[in-house]
C-alpha cells in the first residue's frame, strides 16, 4: 500500500511539474510576443548613414550575406553585457550597430574606446532610426537576410551563440 502511494505521488509530481513547465513556457512566449509587437518585421526599413569611422553605410547594399542590425545605448547596462558578443560576431558576419540616444558622436566614440569595442556604429542621437525599426527599448537585435527581409528580431539580451545560430539559419 505504501509503495503504491509513493508511486502515485511521484507520478503526480512529474505531471504537475510538466504542467508548470508548460505554463511557464506559455507565459514566456506570450510575453516575448508582446514585447516584440511594435518591432519591425518583414521588409527592412531604410537604414543608411555614416558610421563613426566616416564610412557610408546602406543596409540594402548587403545582398550576399545576412546582416546583424543591433540597437544599443551607452547608458544601457544590459547592452554593456552583450557588447563583447556583438564585437565577436562582427569579426565573422556583417554587423551594423546603432547607438540610440547616447549623446554626440564624440561621446559614443569615447565609450567605444574605453570599452575596447570595434564594431561599426551609426549614431542615432534623437532616435530617428530606432523609430523606423519600432525600437522602444534596448538592446534590440534584427537579423536581415539577403532579400532585405527581417527574419529574426529580439528584444533584450541575446547570447553570442544565439546570434551566430540565427545568422547561420538566415543564410
Summarize the structure.
This protein is of the alpha/beta class. Helices cover 44% and strands 21% of the residues.
Helix content: 40-55%
- Domain count: the total is 2
Given helix and strand content, the structural type is alpha/beta
The number of strands is 8
Rg of Cα set: 21 Å
Please write the CATH class name of the largest domain: Alpha Beta
What is the CATH topology descriptor of the largest domain? Glutaredoxin
Q: Kindly state the mean pLDDT as a whole number?
A: 88
CATH-assigned homologous superfamily of the largest domain: Glutaredoxin
How are the strands of the largest sheet arranged?
Answer: 1-8-7-4-5-6
> Proportion of β residues?
15-25%
Please identify, by name, the CATH architecture of the largest domain: 3-Layer(aba) Sandwich
Q: Low-confidence spans: pLDDT under 50, at least 5 residues? A: none
- Span between termini: 59 Å
Elements, N to C (H/E): HEEEEHEHEHEEH
Question: Largest sheet, described in full?
Answer: 6 strands, mixed
